[in-house]
Every structure is written in C-alpha cells, then in structure tokens.
Design goal:
The complex is a heterodimer.
Chain A: H1 3-7, H2 18-25, E1 29-31, E2 36-39, E3 45-50, H3 55-64, E4 73-77, H4 80-88, H5 95-106, H6 110-126, E5 130-132
Antiparallel strand pairs in A: 1-5, 2-3, 3-4
Chain B: E1 9-14, E2 17-22, E3 26-31, E4 34-39, E5 42-51, H1 60-70, E6 76-78, H2 85-90, E7 93-98, E8 106-111, E9 116-122, H3 127-138, E10 148-152, E11 155-159, E12 164-171, E13 174-181, E14 184-192, H4 194-200, H5 203-211, E15 217-220, E16 226-231, H6 235-243, E17 249-255, E18 262-270, H7 276-285, E19 286-288
C-alpha cells in the first residue's frame, strides 16, 4: 500500500477545514441593484441585467445606432427551482438556510441541494446578478 | 443540530468500511477511501482508510507516529479515552493521539483480519457531537462476511466481494457508482424527482440516456414502472464492437420503487453474455432506504 497516497492531501480535502466551509455557507447573497426582474404567471423569474461591454464595442454600437447610446441588456429566464432560489435571495437569508429549505422542497438530499444551490449562486455571481456579503 | 438527546442511527457503508452514524449527519464521500461526516454543514469527524500489505507489529508505534505526523496535526500519543475503549476490541493495533486543540484528536487503527489501516480525526464542536462521534467510531467495522455493502445517501447495494469500485459521482439528482467485476463493467444509478423526470421523458428514453449506447432492445412492463434494455449482438456485430473497443453485451434495467420518488437503474456491460442470476441479484440488492 502506498501510505503517501493515504496521507496525501487531495483537492477534496478542502471541506475538512471547518472555518472556511462555515464561512462560505454563512454568506448572505443579495440581488444586485443593477438588475431588474419580474415573475411570470407560471411562477418563473425573468431577470434583465446590463451587459458589461468593452469601450470598443460600446463605440461600435454607438456608430450603428447613429450616435445614440443604447442601454444594452440581456435576459435570463430561470426554471422553477432557480426561481425559488432567486425569491429566497432577500439580503438576509444565508446560503445555508437556502440549502436547508431547498432540500425538502425539491426532494434532494442536503448534499445534492448544496451542490445545486452553490453552483447556481456561483453562476449568478459570475454574471454579476448577486453580491455575497 | 445541537439537541441534548442522542439521535437515531443509520448505517453508512462505503468501500469496505461500515459504521453507524446519527440519522441527521451527512456522509460526504471525499475520495474512495475518505469519508467526512457533517452535522449541520460542520465536519464532525473524518476517516481515511487503505489496505496495507504488511504490518510489522514491532514497528507499529513508530510507523503510526510517522503516519500521524504526516497528517500535519499537532498532537501526540495519548491513552485511549474511555468512551472509545470498544474500538480496542475490534482492532488489534490502535494508537490514539491528543492535542491541545480538540480538533487535533484522532487515532490510527489496524485490522489484522483484512489488513485495513484506518485513520480518524475528531472535529467535534459540542459534547453531544463528541459522544455521537465516539458511538459512530465504536461501530466501525472493516470486513463483511456477507459480500460488500454500499450504503450512502438513501441507497443500499450489496455486491459480491469480487466487485471493485471504479468510479462514482454525486451530482444533484443523479448518483452514479461504477464497479468492475472481472472483465465486466457495472454501473448503478439513482435518480431523484422521478415524477417530474417521467413527465418529461419516458422510462426507456431515460435508460437509453443513462446507458449512453444505441441499439439497446428496450421493453417496458405493463405497469410502466420497470424497463429493461439489452444488447446481444450477432457474432459479426460482436467483432465490430470489439474492434471499437466496446463491450458487446449489455444488460440494463431501470425501475421506480413504489412509495419513493426515485428511479434506480443498473447498466452491466461485458465481453461475454451476462449471467441472469447476477442480473437478478443486482436488481434485488439495489434499494432505497430511509
């Protein structure tokens, strides 16, 4: 047996450090003020957010629009689960609470709900739709 | 969860290791030989294990001290606490370590029967967690006489000893565990939210997607809850599959256990026809447990 393998620290060792994990789950997501959203009749959420373009593309857009600066935005439609999470983002509920409430609601285990919610929040953060405090 | 009352226990079995943990704890598979147990998202303890080809009993203390040192935990050898005494009955070699920080407590044990070396580290934050960890560790066993049991999340699977873990993934709503048995490959899947999945896709289509191969002969039973798929190619076709480095024979099954909103499936592939008794055993021994 390779003892070094047994004792080696792999990437998956990260959750062993309780502080880091606790801290990340204690983060409170908050919707960005630049974002506009609406709820459809079927309960699904549509988010409209401004596109962050480089100055070159902004000037190009101005040329095509006869010098008028247009507000460029993108729309994102969330599915039922995503919409549920979005509605729970109120600036006071932490990630842990969202996971705990999502697990029974979606019939997923806590571990599965954690993967699902954190991946979703990461994606929202990447697009600048939420802030974590 | 920081209640004062001890909780109901449930068994966790993974890759040769078995123990009972409180029902509300989550067992996280971090590596094939590494389990982390969490209570309310906080790690409570973790165990790592591996098979050791040879242990020199006279060098046990020296060896275990050096292994423990490699973990980078600041603790030194200490007397085994009273609450962990039952561990000494199970394991012939046991060494306990204690540090100034309670998170540095843990130990190394070795089983003479199956040559398994186990490291555990306690990460308890409350007295109750400490008691429950001791109970869990005392229930630790590393060899099963009745085949190997795999019990994680809400699934339970019993397989013969000659099935070895190949791969696994725990994604949201889909758990996959793959094994090798001789030249055959075997994959077990558990899907959650069966109702909404079946509203979007029929069972045969889900099985086809899970199997990831074309040309399966699919049949569904009259209750629409069990679907089987098989590929038993002609000799010429077998040659073709072998040239493509694919296993020609495939047997797959997907079913929805009554009373659970889950789907269970297995996909077995082999260079030879699969034994029907094995397939029956896979179906009967793969279950949802609460």
């Amino acid at each position: 047996m390779k003892i070094s393998k047994l004792l080696s620290k792999n990437k998956a060792d990260k959750p062993v450090h309780p502080v880091t994990r606790t801290e990340s789950l204690a983060c409170i997501p908050e919707k960005s003020s630049a974002v506009e959203w609406s709820q459809q009749d079927n309960g699904e959420i549509i988010i409209e957010y401004p596109l962050q373009l480089k100055p070159f593309f902004i000037s190009l857009s101005k040329r095509f629009n006869k010098g008028v600066e247009q507000k460029l935005s993108k729309k994102l439609q969330l599915d039922a689960i995503g919409s549920r999470v979005w509605l729970m983002i109120d600036g006071t509920t932490d990630v842990k609470t969202i996971i705990k409430e999502m697990a029974p609601a979606t019939d997923l285990s806590l571990q599965e709900a954690e993967i699902s919610v954190t991946t979703f929040l990461r994606e929202l953060g990447r697009r600048g739709l939420i802030l974590l405090k | 969860m920081n209640n004062t009352a001890p909780s109901r226990l449930r068994p966790i079995a993974w890759n040769g290791i078995r123990l009972n943990v409180p029902n509300h704890w989550e067992a996280i598979v971090s590596a094939p030989g590494h389990l982390i147990f969490e209570d309310d998202f906080n790690p409570v303890f973790h165990i790592r294990w591996s098979h050791l080809s040879e242990l020199r009993p006279h060098k046990w203390q020296q060896q275990s001290d050096s292994w423990w040192e490699k973990l980078g935990v600041n603790s030194s050898p200490a007397t085994l606490p009273v609450e962990l005494k039952p561990l000494a009955d199970t394991f012939t070699h046991l060494r306990y370590y204690k540090g100034k920080d309670p998170l540095a407590n843990g130990g190394i044990c070795y089983c003479d029967s199956c040559h398994t070396l186990i490291l555990f580290q306690q990460l308890n934050h409350t007295n109750l967690q400490e008691q429950e960890t001791a109970k869990a560790l005392n229930s630790l066993s590393c060899h099963d006489l009745d085949g190997s049991l795999w019990q994680i999340q809400d699934i339970s699977l019993r397989l013969p000893e000659d099935h070895f873990l190949k791969d696994y993934s725990f994604k949201a709503g889909l758990t996959r565990i793959s094994f090798t048995a001789g030249s055959s490959n075997l994959q077990f899947c558990r899907l959650s939210q069966a109702k909404s999945r079946l509203a979007a896709q029929p069972l045969p289509q889900i099985l086809q997607t899970l199997a990831g191969v074309k040309g399966l002969n699919l049949s569904i039973d009259s209750t629409n809850t069990v679907c089987t798929g098989q590929r038993t190619p002609s000799v010429a076709r077998q040659l073709l599959y072998r040239m493509r480095k694919e296993k020609p024979f495939i047997q797959a099954k997907i079913w929805r256990p009554p009373e659970y909103d889950r789907l269970l499936a297995y996909i077995a592939s082999s260079p030879h026809p699969l034994a029907p008794t094995d397939l029956i055993s896979y179906y009967e021994n793969f279950k949802i447990v609460e």
